[in-house]
Structures are given as C-alpha cells and as structure tokens.
Amino acid sequence: MAEDTDHDAAQHDASAKNPKDKGEHTNMTIRTTFKHSFWICWKDLAEFSRSKLRVIMLILMPLFMMCMVGFIFPSGTTIKDTPVAIALQD
Question: How many CA atoms within 13 Å lie on the side-chain side of 33?
Fold first, then answer.
C-alpha cells in the first residue's frame, strides 16, 4: 500500500516538472473548441451517411417509439380522429 502512494507521488512530481504538460490544455480557446467540435461532428455525419439503412432508422425509429409509447401509455388528453394532410410541393 505504501509503495502505491509513493509511486503515485513520484508520477505527480514528474509530470509537474514537464514543461509541456504545464500549459498544454490552457491554450484551448472557444474558437478552437468549436472548430474541433465541428470537425468531429462532420466526421461522424460523413460516416453515418454512408449507410442508407442508418439514415432510414434515424427517421423511422423515433416515430415507431412514439407510437409504441402512445399505445402502451394512453392518456385522457390523447388526440383522436384528427385529420392529417400531406402536401406534395413538387
């Protein structure tokens, strides 16, 4: 047990002496944070869009789950017999 705490203290002292570790994370500005976040989002969307099945599931699964929850847990304020129209604007 004592060896573990001595080892952890030695690692902490070694990392404190390393000048690279001192200010490495403090240089992140809001602009670079948004730039990195946008890049990660773009990469994920590009990977996600390669599969048509994934895109279809992205749209259909939430609709399916909303219908299932509505049937399983109906409430007194459920809207019934409401006409729905779809406009085709080609």
Answer: 6
What whole-number distance in Å separates Cα of residue 87 and Cα of residue 49?
27
Q: How far is CA 13 from CA 8, 17, 25, 54, in A?
A: 9, 6, 18, 48
**Helix (H) / strand (E) containing 67:** helix 52-72
- Find the helix packing angle between 52-72 and 30-48, rounded to 10°: 90
This prediction's pTM: 0.37
pLDDT tens, residue by residue, 54-79? 888 888 999 999 999 988 887 777 67
Assigned token pair, 12: 């902490």
